[in-house]
Design goal:
Layout (H helix, E strand, L loop, with lengths): L7 H50 L5 H9 L7 E5 L5 E4 L12 H9 L1 E8 L4 E9 L5 E9 L1 H7 L1 H31 L16 H55 L4 H32 L9 E4 H18 L3 E6 L3 E4 L1 H17 L6 E8 L11 E8 L21 H7 L5 H11 L3 E7 L3 E9 L5
Parallel strand pairs: 7-9
Antiparallel strand pairs: 1-2, 1-5, 3-4, 4-5, 6-8, 9-10, 10-12, 11-12
Helix pairs in contact: 1-5, 6-7, 7-11, 8-9, 9-11
Length: 465
Amino acid sequence: MRDEAKRLSTTLFRSVFVYSIAILLCFSGIFMALFYLVYEHDEEQRVATIAESAAAFLEDKDTQDSVRILEGQLGQDIRYTLVDPQGNVVFDSGGNVDENHADRPEILEAREKGISTVTRYSSTLGKDTIYTAVLLDSGNVLRLSEERASFVSVFKSTEPALIVALAAAFVLSVALSRLLTHRTVAPLNQIDVASPLENETYEEMRPLLSRVEAQQRQLMEQNRELARAENIRREFSANVSHEMKTPLQVISGYAELLAGGKIPQKDAERFARIILTESANMTDLINDVLVLSRIDDPVMENAGKEEVELLSLSHEIVTRFLPLAEKQSVSIRCLGSSVVVDGNKSLLDQLVSNLLSNALKYSDPDGEVVVLVGKSIAPPDSEGTPIAYIRVRDNGCGIPLEEQHKIFERFYRVDKSRSKESGGTGLGLAIAKHAAVFHNGTISVESSVGRGSVFTVRIPTEHEG
């Protein structure tokens, strides 16, 4: 099951809140530690200063005088201890001490360096004790000590106030995190996806908004293409229905007369020939529709491509059309040089056949149709690829200039009466155009009324021959 989608505002709020609390706790701990270290250092300095002053006062005194002077310090917060050279405690303002102090760290260090300051923690009392020892000229060591609360004790003593401060900081962090989250997310919530690049938002959002804009333009273009394709489909369906309706009506009408059985034999034969002709027209129409459907199929994009020699293919097609040309008293020739392209031989055959059929259809008796095959008749394209070409020229009736941009549309006929007589479907040039586009090529026409037409197909080729 799909996990619940994350919310940016919730993620941002949690991140800001957690980071702020972590930083607050970290800095609180660092501040308390620094405060305690500074306080401890100041206390050590104070005790050391008192110890040095007391030692200076006892410099010229013997042990008895030193004891008598130190007894006057009873009742003060600082504890005074006088230790002789053997480590015995001669005097201690905290009471009698029988334990030998010769191995105490502060005593050893004072005898070595002249003065020593040491801090020791008592886990029993939960307190720190500062010891400062000074070596006297008499060989005795004067030690001053003072108890003070340890860091743990200080922390525990401030715990209630610290809890209150942390609670206040918690509430403040929540409020600030919510405010920051709201101000951060607000520009994102105000983005108008219909016009992504017109929004005033964070610069970091620009790449994303640019991609959204590009995708929207792409989708709009795709929608327009789909709309155009749908219009073409509807128009195509309507035209196919119309084109098939006429021969079907003719076939149906004459078949009904024949079925009645009351017509002369001569008329029956004529009606049968008409039915046969209209059936052939329907077959041609269906075949052309199937060819168009096959060309439009995306699966055909790279299917069935092979090396095709255009001159020999054109000779075959011209030979196939010779009987029809002779019947119409039109001469037909194929000229040119050998050219090889990568293509679909069936589609190229269909392309040339349609152009040749169209030229014969609109040629007058004693006219001439020439098929010319060659290479590089047009300037090389931007990448310098050679261009193969097929030109079909006739000296027929020609095409008016205002009609020339329409002739490659499906079911369009320049001379409808002539097309009807010759049985054209109106799909021949549309198929030729689609076949040329299928081969990454183009098709164009040059024509003038009364002087004939020249159709030129150009196809890129990488082959030398």
